[in-house]
Amino acid sequence: MRTNTQPNGYDDGGCDARYTRTACLWGRRPDRISDVLGDALSLPGAPEDAGPPAAPPAADAPAVLDVGCGEGRNAVRLAQRGARVLAMDVSAAALENGARAWGDAGGIEWRQGDARTAGLEPASFDGVLACSVLHWLEDEGQVADVVARLQEATRPGGVNALLMFNRGHAYVPPAGEMRMPVLLPHEWYLARYAGWTVLSATDADSTHTHKGHEEPHTHAVTRLVALKGGGA
After folding, report:
1. Which of 18, 25, 13, 1 is nearest to 177 (CA)?
2. Higher-confidence position of 12 and 128
3. How many helices (H) and strands (E) does the chain have?
4. Torsion angle of alpha carbons 55, 32, 91, 206, nearest 10°?
């Protein structure tokens, strides 16, 4: 039986077990922040065919890191638009689901890894996407450290796109979930990007349902997209 604890000791709050129970936990529809990142990187529009890209991207295509990629819905969207994507997640079950869901998607490298410890070369990515992952770290210090690591891995002129729950709403966990997220103020995230050019930043409520949490629930969500300057 798969447990929640990863080899590095990280307890993922039940996500790995939920990926094991559900063939496609988050569905195939990408979050719109992936397209905001694609637009900021001047990627071409996605084709009408919603399937995974079969052809590899151009050698000079923008390199994008999708950290906490889950089953790859955002990674595939960015690859559809022509990016070279490193899709990384701590959950082996998520990556296994992604491989089954998308098959051999051109332009995507799937890698199991932890954003806190993964070896990311400085200034190696044109774009970094962290969608619904930062609030699942252990505490404020870890969130700050991971944000700094993602910033360091971004090239000058590159873009970070982040989506995370913030402190605007209390978190009500689904039945059986033990882990609680780290809820930080919207302004806390803006402060991390004080030396960058903020392209967009929103703080809005989001009410939805998903597999494993079927009752409607509301999160306060920060969406932040920022451009790294030459000296940042």
Report:
1. 13
2. 128
3. 6, 7
4. -170
Residue given tokens 């882990």 in the structure block: 179
User: Can you say whether residue 73 is alpha, beta or left, with left for phi > 0 and alpha for psi between -120 and 50 degrees?
Assistant: alpha
Helix (H) or strand (E) holding 77: helix 73-80
The contacts found for 44-47 with CB under 8 angstroms, 24 or more apart, are 44/81, 44/82, 45/81, 46/77, 46/80, 46/81, 47/80
pLDDT in tens, 20-71: 555 554 456 799 999 999 999 999 987 766 677 767 888 899 999 999 999 8
User: Can you name the residues that pair with 53 across neighbouring β-strands?
Assistant: none
What is the identity of the amino acid at 210? H
Q: How far apart are CA 135 and CA 140, in angstroms?
A: 9
pLDDT, tens digit, 9 for 90 and up, residues 74-108: 999 999 999 999 999 988 888 888 888 887 777 89
Q: How far apart are CA 170 and CA 189, in angstroms?
A: 18
